[in-house]
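Task: fold both queries, return tokens.
Query 1:
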Amino acid sequence: MDALNVQERGNAKPHQLRRDGLTPIGLVEKGKPTRKMQADTKSLRDAISHAQGIGIIEIQVEGESKRRTVFLKQVDRIPHTPQILNVTLNEISKNEVMTADVHVNAVGTPPEVAKGTGVLVAGHSTIKLKGKHSDLPGHLDVDVSHLEPGGSIHAGALQLPNGVELASSPDTTLFSVTHLRTAEPEAAPAASDEAPTGAESSAAPEEPQE
């Protein structure tokens, strides 16, 4: 994958950049103010889709001879659309140890859930992991097929890659199974022998006999 080419933003407003097919970028460098950059929107989307691990990509800053390694710290989009508004990139070194949020995915179906009598509850969708960016996984798959109602899986039970440590609390609940509650049928109202108060009779009144 080629490095993403980025350039200094200049004085252009964000909406002007987007209209011209460019995306505003904030480049975070250690000990320096965040640099205002820009990149071709299509190239940026391709770079994001091919990002490694926790979102690692390489960029080529215009005027520099060496590539930089960065991770996607934040991608702002218009809600419910793929359109990117802004991107924040954080520069990292090769052996830098960092803490990142990693998504946790449930794999498999618990028996009670498969029968329709249980519900799988996701407590947290991400956990914090610590390690070199080259060691941090893009996500973790967790087998939930053995869970029974009342059972749960906590972060401390996860098997992590070599060189990676858990930064979240080991007691963090990731998945659990509960019984599916069914609504109880409402009792029918008791029948009454008395006519409702104020009810009108549908029978015609009898005429007096002479």
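Query 1 returned. Query 2:
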Amino acid sequence: MAHKLGATFHVPHGLANALIISHVIRYNATDIPFKQAIFPQYKYPHAKERYAQIADYLHLGGSTPDEKVERLVSAIEHLKHQLDIPSTIKEALGNEDKEFYAQLEDMAEQAFDDQCTGANPRYPLMSDLKELYVLAYQGCRIDAALYHVEPEFFNSDALATLTNLV
């Protein structure tokens, strides 16, 4: 997805990844994917557990894998805010709504065909890719009432560890 966002709108690759990472983590952190990647060595995807392990390593807290994934996403969003990384694709592109939506179908199709898509733990449908692009453009998700709130549960050690990883 980042390849196609960058190629279409001349967004640097690292920034393109930062703009979509939280949405991709949430998308991949599922127990039962509609369609999973084509790696035969995996009986089922382990992305949620692996994201939870990252949250544990960063001492973000949480008692369930779902809670840990959300704390990881919140930590990433907090770090992006500290680094003055735009919160949304819309903010990064300067509110180019018409152009973004005109390119959406092509970006999703190209992202679907990208060689890296097959390595994703959850193999997306084209409709999934379009939805992820729109969510990242708008900066929200259906079940998130307070998407860009400063996380209260971070301790300074967890944020320092996350910052040092960058």
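Both queries returned. Flag for query 2: Residues 71 and 81 are 15 Å apart (CA to CA).
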